[in-house]
Amino acid sequence: xxxxxxxxxxxxxxxxxxxxxxxxxxxxxxxxxxxxxxxxxxxxxxxxxxxxxxxxxxxxxxxxxxxxxxxxxxxxxxxxxxxxxxxxxxxxxxxxxxxxxxxxxxxxxxxxxxxxxxxxxxxxxxxxxxxxxxxxxxxxxxxxxxxxxxxxxxxxxxxxxxxxxxxxxxxxxxxxxxxxxxxxxxxxxxxxxxxxxxxxxxxxxxxxxxxxxxxxxxxxxxxxxxxxxxxxxxxxxxxxxxxxxxxxxxxxxxxxxxxxxxxx
Length: 264
Fold this sequence. Notes:
- 31% of the residues lie in helices and 21% in strands.
- It is built from eight helices and ten strands.
- The longest helix is centred in the middle third of the chain and has 17 residues, at 145-161.
- The radius of gyration is 19 Å and the shape is elongated.
- The model has no long low-confidence stretch (mean pLDDT 90).
């Protein structure tokens, strides 16, 4: 691996003004990489929290800075907001003696398929995968086609692996809707994995309501029991609900690999 001991790494997350758990994965992965001593500096910044996109480059001193968006897919934030706020010119930005290298988002990494399978098996240990319908859940919206595409691509890859009886991409706001999971699934066991970076409002509030696991919005993920009551017996099925994929400790290695595979 290339020597990054004189370089800085910046992990860019979305954050939230209402969800205390939204920034947690980015902070944890940054701490993990900082403790490994690979980079001279490791910093995080957020769109909705402090430190902000606009101030983070002033927080590091290194002349070579790698920026990795901790986002699931290419889209409005990775293609427009982050480059605009960090004043990037493209993949490589020269600013005086400094070089800023803009890497692929974490969610573009090939390891996503393996991590999704790991998350699914971890939440339903011992459950026969050949008798299980696996749902990969994205947000789904006409404003972000790439978000929908990411879940669909991963569903196709897991289907090709032959791990599960069926793998279905489903969405909160577009068809196929996760609220209709019982009509979409053909197997007695159902595993649902939110394809999100953090256990935010969608994964611990919205999706459980859409699944029928909860009747109303609950507390923050760190205070919620929604991930600890598996399996749920709903609509004549055994349903297992996972935390968001971005909470997996393997995401630190994904972020690092987006740096090591960066090509100028």
